Amino acid sequence: MSKNSRDDDVAFIQALAELLNVNELTELSVKREYGEDDSLDVRVSRAAPVAAAPVAAPLPAAAPTPAAPAPAAPVEDPAQHPGAVTSPMVGTAYLQPEPGSEAFVSVGSTVTEGQTLLIVEAMKTMNHIPAPRAGTVKRILVEDGAPVEYGAPLMIIE
What does the UniProt keyword field contain (predicted)? Predict the structure, then answer.
């Protein structure tokens, strides 16, 4: 596959991700045929938003009101963290260079700018994801072999 074709596929996948967000879809699956033995299967998905709990009707004034539970702490969105390393593409994340070998990094590892953190496989190409800055790996947000979306948080480096 030529570089232009790969660039076209990346642009196509990014357009699908945008379409997914704009239309508030949870999943989109497309197959592009290039020839007899050449095709591209793409599945772009995201977690469905969590529905709010239904609100109960107010109790009559004569009945005692039960104590309301304390409001839950706001859930931190890892993608909004200033140290988040996000996926530059849709693909499959691998935390080690090959099966059975040691992971590139682990929680607590000190990394330098440009050091490989993990690999995202996209269209049968292994893309090394470098550390955007030096720091310490605080959280790893993906599992080995897990599918990732464009812009999904992969790790937190502080």
Answer: Biotin, Fatty acid biosynthesis, Fatty acid metabolism, Lipid biosynthesis, Lipid metabolism
Question: What is the Cβ-side half-sphere exposure of residue 146, based on CA atoms within 13 angstroms?
Answer: 14
Instruction: Name residue 96's amino acid.
Output: Q
* Residues 6 or more apart whose Cβ sits within 8 Å of residue 116: 104, 128, 129, 130, 131
Residue 86 near residue 79, CB atoms below 8 Å: yes
| Rounded distance between C-alpha atoms, residue 56 and residue 54, angstroms | 6
φ, ψ for residue 91, nearest 5 deg: 175, -155
The domains located in the chain, with CATH, are: 3-45 (no CATH), 79-157 (2.40.50.100)
